[in-house]
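LOG
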Amino acid sequence: MSVRVSVGVAAGAAYFLLSHQVVAQSAPDTVELPEIVVTTPSPVVKPAKKKPKAQAPGPAGQPAAAASVSQQPSTPDLQPLPGGIVAHDAFVSVTVTTERELVSNGGPTITDTLMTKPGITGSTFAPGANRPIIRGLDSYRIRTQENGIGTHDVAAISEDHAIPIDPFSARQVEVVRGPGTLRYGSQAIGGIVNATNDRIPDFVPPSGIKAELMGGISSVDDGRDGGFQVTTGSGGVALHADAFKRRSDDYDTPHGVQPNTYVESEGGALGGSLVGSDGFIGLSYSRFASLYGIPGEEAVEENSRIDMAQTKLLSKGEWRPQANGVDAVRYWFGWSDYAHNELVDEGEIGSRFTNREIEGRVELQHVPVMTQFGELTGAIGVQAGHRRMSGLSFEGDSLLDPSRTRSVAGFVFEELQATRNLRLQAAARYESTEVEGDGLDDALAPITASPTFKPVSGSLGLLYVLPFDVTARLNAQHVERAPEAAELFSKGAHEATGTFEIGNPNLSKEKADTFELGFQRSTGALRFDASAYYTHFDGFIYRQLTGDRCEDTVASCANDDTLEFAQVLFEQRDATFYGVELQGELDVGRVWKGVWGVEAQYDFVHATFDDGGYVPRMPPHRLGGGLYYRDAEWVARTNLLHAFAQDQVAENETDTGSYTLLNAEVSYTFTGETGLDGITPVTTIGVRGDNLLDDDVRNSASFKKDEVLLPGASVRLFGTVKLN
């Protein structure tokens, strides 16, 4: 085990502050993507006199909002336990990863911090491209978004494509398992991963400024990262700025260096809002750029890497008239321009993916209405989107010719407080989606098609407060998903998976019926969250191996084992998923200045096709536990997580061995003196160890599991300085 640690947050912060070279400049063999210039007139709104903002209740079924999700209650002399049980008031299972966890983990993607949470893992295709997998579902069934607007990338097309959100730009990441989030669209059929931040501030800091400086270094990949966030304002005007930069080399494994696993990324944002007594309206501009290598034998030989960039414009606002039956009106808007080049050898462009997308959503929340059955609250809304996407190849047939997707939807959420302990929920969504593109018919002849799909979804939920502060949740959902352009119109080589993919323009809607039972207790010495779920898919869309192989064109496909790519067709079969997720903590007793306790977790998902066979790339059973200590200044924990061998595999898939992760962390937080202007500095420094047993780790849900090991033992030094 090689451990190379010299300094912590100072090194990370200095790395960010002193570094001025962009990613493309630091690597001469890359192709820099063109700048995208956006000119938008500034909104003119007369700022109202600021008064304390009342938190309006959000629509049922939405991801937990920052104001309604908090760490477990703790006495004044105890810190919240990072990664612990959090209180939420949702009808589906929710996981919240805090800013503190994002900094201590230090991974280049938001998925890195989530992968040890019950029910969540990642695709781990490359350190720079790690897409979340929730309950065994990924790609087109998991929606990733920032502040309620989709990330507008091409990550769902291929596992080697990154999600353009850096952990340093997020205040927290919320994961909503299951299809209970009907306000967001078809891609949310399996769950939501929502990163929230202050890029569009909805408040003016009480002291006039809120700032944070963060950074760290890691031993396994010589990683160094740093960033800052600052929100300031007065007189009803709030401004925000943030930026980050990170760089890591090829990481170490128990058997040596894993080639082509480096990551370089940077980005930042500027935003501002007009904040009044009845709401706010704001706008932000951000840019994200990343260069990362693709591991694997063939990828290393070709020096495969991806150079990507995205420019995004976001706006959101809220108006609380509280008149004429309207409690609040809210809107979200996003526009983005995304592109990446897939480079080989000395900078030759093998393919180029682009995505230009616009999305908007408006919601009207009505005032609470008293009925004979109880108090009724809820909201109605509309959502619309337009996307132009392509995946052009310069070496053969393109994976995806330019396609266009248009969608419009309406949704409604209603919630009834039937008794003091009982709440009921009903939600519905109707959507119309048209997907236009060029593909192949059953005879592999070129066609142009524009099928229209009309998904209809609904959900019913129940929340009941039991004795001892235990909340029971029971919900049922029927959710439908429109096929994506790549599933309908793909017709080219897919280097990432070693396949030649052929879409199916005859695909129908994918439908899922889910039932979930859960129990949660987030207060007291014993805290837990437990869920059991069952989902049946009607027309589960998947990639079916045909037995033929291809080179770079459709015409080359034949029953010839010497050809490079395995031919796959997009098909549909019925499938069943079920599983369990458990997480618990117990404060055993007082010791020194705080409390020590024990924690445990367990999760599994079982997925089969109804006509026989396992669904590919399923996560294994995982069982873990550990010890923790926390007081007003110190937090320490050690955790052991064992992943069992995965031998329930699909056809042409290999078994995956077991592994055991030993992780540990200790941090110290101290508060400085409050200045004359009311600003108080809070500093946290810490050290974290991952995979301290230096075990061989292979992810059964990854396409690369047979040829790529995940990182070996690592130590990370990290820190933050906050001004509030």
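LOG (cont.) second protein
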Amino acid sequence: MSTVADLIVQRLRDAGVNVIFGVPGGGSNLDLLDAATRAGVSFVLTSTETGAVIAAMAHAEITGAPGVCLTTLGPGAASAVNGVACAFLDRAPVLVFTDSHPAAARECTHQRIDHQRLFAPITKQSVSLTAGNADDAVREALTCAMTPPFGPVHLDCPGDVLSSSATARDEHSVARQRSADALSRSAETLALEPPSDPFALAASARRPLLLVGLGARQQADAEAIRALSERRGVPAMVTYKAKGVVPDDHPWFAGVLTNAAIERPLLDEADLLIGLGLDPVELIPRPWTVAAPIVSGGPFPVETGHVPFKAQLVADIPAVVRAIDRALAPSGWNRDAIRATMDGQRSAIADAGGAFTAQRVIEIAARRLASTACVTVDAGAHMFPATTLWPVCEPNGMLISNGLSTMGFALPAAVGAALTDRARRVVALTGDGGLLMCVGELATAARERLDLIIIVFADESLSLIEIKQAQRRLAPRGVGLGRVEWTKIAEGFGVAAFAAADEAALDAALEQASARGGPSLIEARIDASNYGRTLRAVRG
């Protein structure tokens, strides 16, 4: 290796990284960019630093390799904070490289903020590189990011470090460490925590219910969970991020879990809840009042302050499933009753009242696109019909920010997702408020000629906040966005654009967008008057 930058890029390539996202500055990340180009690692220029982190996060969730992004020092690092927080609470493995002043400029205060203190609360680790520690630090960062629960790691790069000569670790030492790490990770520890015995609870339950979360999204996890449901007749709910682990059309699919009202009938009917990769970070912050005991199984221990887990099995998901399977008694659930409950949930959410609503847009788009496209979903009122009415059949087929629930997620996530497989279309479902926060990423999509269809639910308001104001009998203040000509904005970025104010126009727009290459935007001018009813149906 000729430089520290070359060494870093080689370590990233060894970990499966083939693309870096970001907005470069004039310091050390220029060396990183140059080394990446020499090594055949692509660089994708995004419009914002937060967009770069979110794109890297989406890329990581789909590929299973760590995502990587870079920013300049000071304002660039600060701008990345929302994306890093998203990766932290949504448990995504991302490496964030930031420029920093060289050691010779330690007395300079211009653009200087303490990057490590800035990122410490929202990363698993934050370190500063030196020529001597770079190899160890990057290896450790990759291991840390990819150890469950996954999460972001920050690497600060002084301006005089990445261009200096590299010193690699002895490969025999590295091989021995890798072997030890693999052994420790492969052990099926099935660690138990008192006071309850989960196997005794499983043996006595007649209506156990699986609650599948973000820690169970590997393909092997999905196969084990689906087989358990089918073999044992046990229904499974999924969180937003676990959509597709059990497909929406699976006979034992039991809906979406959010700790809201709509799922309570099945939760209240269950006599044991079995969390598989369930992380309470995904649940809305209201008291957990389900009477049935709950146990947890997954690759990492979870907090018990919100959800009172009686016991935790800490092991990989297939091992947990095998252990639970051996203990379960015959199921007393009725599959037809589960299906009827699901049909009732969908009917409650699909209520459109004959208008051109978000529900109708989602149903029409899903009918045409869901079987072949990955979908990304932004935070906002449209999220409730999207997560119920858009069918998903594979893990990570729907990408969403659930731990942080940040607006401005769907478009940069779609950029990251589209770069994992250019042959597969990605659909981004976003509100106009969310799109305003990341609209510059339309330029990224156009520059990269990505096969995206961006559907913006244009209702000129921060609708979810407006609904909450109405619930509190407050006037709708501070939520009006005004009319935005989304088609003109998209065309200005070189993105094909269509507008639809009714179902026929939407069908035509979808047909045209589907037939062309590159990104397209569809401005769906919806009637948002039923959003309040939708929220009440979901959350009570």
